[in-house]
Amino acid sequence: MGEAIVVTSGKGGVGKTTTSANIGTALALLGKKVVLVDTDIGLRNLDVIMGLENRVIYDLVDVAEQRCRLEQALIKDKRFDELYMLPAAQTKDKDDITTDAMLKIITELKQTHDFVIIDCPAGIEQGFRNAIAGAERAIIVTTQETAAVRDADRVIGLLEQHKIPSKLIVNRVRPAMMKRGEVLEINDICQVLAIDLLGIVPEDEKVIAGSNAGEPVAMNPTFKSGLAYRNIARRMLGDMVPLMTLNEKTGTLTKLRKFFGMS
Amino acid sequence: MTVKQHIIIKGVKDGLLFLLDDQCDFEAILNELKHKIEKTHQQLLTGPLIHITVKLGNRTISEEQSKQLTEIIRSQGNLIIHAIESDVPTVPKAHAELKVMTAIIRAGQEIEYHGDLLLLGDVHPGGLIRCTGDIYVLGSLRGVAYAGIHGREEAIIAASLLRPSHMKIADYLCPPLDQFENSDGVMEYAYIDNDQVSIQKLTLLHRENRLPVIMRGV
After folding, report:
1. Domain boundaries, given as residue ranges, for chain A
2. Dihedral through CA A80, CA A29, CA A56, CA A87, nearest 10?
3. What is the pLDDT of residue A154?
4. Which pLDDT score, from 0 to 100, does residue B40 have?
5. Across-strand partners of B7?
6. Nearest CA of chain A to the CA of B112: how many Å?
7. pLDDT attached to residue B82
8. Contact at CB, B106 and A160, closer than 8 angstroms
9. Which of A153, A162, A184 should we substitute to test contact with B (largest number of B Cβ atoms within 10 Å)?
10. Other residues' Cβ atoms within 10 Å of the Cβ of residue B139
11. Rg from Cα positions in chain A
12. Are B140 and B104 part of one and the same domain?
C-alpha cells in the first residue's frame, strides 16, 4: 500500500508541476514505484514536462467516467520501468470530475505504487478539492515572494481542516537577492508558515530548459537544481540530508580583485 | 383562606429578616410585601428604627427590581434596609467569559467569540479575530483583530507582537501602525484613549485600573 502526496501551492506559477515531475523522477531513480497524477484538468502540463505528450490517449476524466480502465490511461515513462503518469483531460473542466471519483482512482493507484504524486492546479476551488481528496500528505511549494507565501498559508490552513499534514519546499531560491534583503529569508518563511521544511531548490535556467526538452532536471545531479530534487526525494524516504549551501559562483576576476583588495 | 406565603418575616437579634420565596413571580412578592407592610403587619412594624435584611434565596434581581423593593420597605418610616442578599454567587463577568484557545489563525481563517479571547498561537496576515470583549494573543498578531465588536469601548487588544494589518476597537479604527513602530520587542496593547486607538506597553496596563487585583502581603 503506497502513499498519496499532493503537491500544491495556492498561487500559480511557483513550480508545482515542475516539482511534481522532478520529485517523481527522483523517487523513481531511488527505485520506487511512482505514479504521477495530473489533476489540472483543462490546462494539462505534466505530460509536456515529462516528455510524454504524444503518448496521451486516455486521461483522468476518461477513467472517472469509465470510458477506459485505469491501466489503459497510465503512461509508462521513457526512462524508468516503474514510473507512470496519469494525464489530465485537456478539453474538459475541473468540475467534470467529482471528489468521490478522484478518491476512488487514487485509492486504486495506491494499491500498486509506492508513491502517488498528485499535481494540484492553482487556486482553492473544485480542482484543489479534487486533488486533495485522496491525499494523506501534502507538499507545499512556495517561492520567496510575499504573495506566494500568503497563498501557501491559506492552503496550509485548508489542508489542516482536512487533517492533511504538509511540508514545505521553497522553490526558485535566489541567494544573491536574499543576501541583499530583497526577498524573504528561508528561515523567515518557515517561521511564518510554521511547518517543516522539506527542501529548497535554487533558481536555475536548467529547470526551464529541462521542462522544454521533456527531460526533468533531476536526471542530472551535476545541476544544483537536479541535486536539490534528489535530496528532497531522499528526505521523503527518511534520509537525513543537510540543506545545500547556495553560494553564488565567484568568477576568477572577482577572486583576483578580492585578492588585491579591490572589492 | 390559606394562600401560600411568599414572604416570611423573622426576628433576629439586630433587626428583622425578610425571607423571600425564590420560586414565585417577582410581582407577587412586591404585592405581598406591600400588603404586609401597609395592612397586616403594621402594628408589628411601628416603633423604633428596625434594620431589615432581605434574603432573596436562589434569585438574582435587577437594579430596577431592587429599587422597587427598597421603595416599598422605606415607605414605612422606621424600616431601614441593611442588606439585600442573594445565594447566587456573583462572578466577575470578564473572567467568566474568558476563552483560551490554541491555534494558528492562517490566511483566510476566521474566529469569532462572544467574550474575551486568549489565543495561544499566531494570527497570520489575512487571518481574522472578532470578539465582543478583549483579545489577548500569546504570539504574533499580524492579521486583523476586532475587539469590542458590539460597541464595548473599554475592550483592548494585547499581543506578544502587536503588528496587525489593521485593528478595530468598538467602532474606532486604528491608524496605520507604523506610527507606533517599536522594535524593542516588548508586549503591547491597544485601547481607546480620547476617541482614538492608542498603543501602550502591556506592563503599563495596570495603571488603567482594569480588573484591579489587590496584592496581599506582609
Report:
1. 3-259
2. 150
3. 94
4. 77
5. B20
6. 17
7. 79
8. yes
9. A153
10. 18
11. 19
12. yes
Average confidence (pLDDT) over A55-65: 93
Q: B94 falls in which pLDDT band (50, 70, 90)?
A: very low
The whole-number average pLDDT for the span A219-235 is 95
- C-alpha to C-alpha distance for A132 and A159, rounded to whole angstroms: 8
Residue A243 corresponds to which cell in the numbers above? Answer: 540543506
Instruction: Say yes or no to pLDDT of A21 above 50.
Output: yes
Same domain, B160 and B133: yes
pLDDT of residue A59: 93
Higher pLDDT, A18 or B45: A18
**What CATH number is associated with residue B18?**
3.30.160
Examine the domain organization and report whether B65 and B101 are in the same domain: no
| Tally of domains in chain B | 2
Collect all residues with Cβ–Cβ distance below 8 Å to B202 and sequence separation of at least 6: B158, B186, B187, B188, B189
Q: What is the pLDDT of residue B90?
A: 59
Give the span between the Cα atoms of B177 and B183, in whole angstroms: 12
Does the distance separating the beta carbons of B122 and A194 come in below 8 Å?
yes
Say if B106 is an interface residue toward chain A (CB within 8 Å).
Answer: yes
Tell me what the pLDDT averaged over chain A comes to.
92
pLDDT at B141: 93
Q: Which residue of B has its CA nearest to A192?
A: B124
Phi, psi of A57 (to 5 degrees): -120, -60
Select from B105, B124, B144 the residue whose CB has the most chain A CBs within 10 Å, as the one to mutate to test that interface. Answer: B124
Give residue B48's domain range. 7-85
**Contact at CB, A156 and B106, closer than 8 angstroms:** yes
| Pairs across A and B, CB distance < 8 A | 24
Taking CA atoms, A260 is separated from A256, A263, B176, in Å, by 6, 8, 49
CB A7 within 8 A of CB A19: yes
B213 occurs within a structural domain: no
Which pLDDT belongs to residue A221?
92
pLDDT, tens digit, for every residue of B113-142?
A: 999 999 999 999 999 999 999 999 999 999
pLDDT higher than 90, residue A200: yes
> Which of 3.40.50.300, 2.160.10.10, 3.40.50.720, 3.90.650.10 is the CATH number of A3-259?
3.40.50.300
Helix (H) or strand (E) holding B80: strand B79-85
Whether residue B28 is contained in a domain is answered as yes
Q: What are phi and psi of B135, to 5 degrees?
A: -125, 125
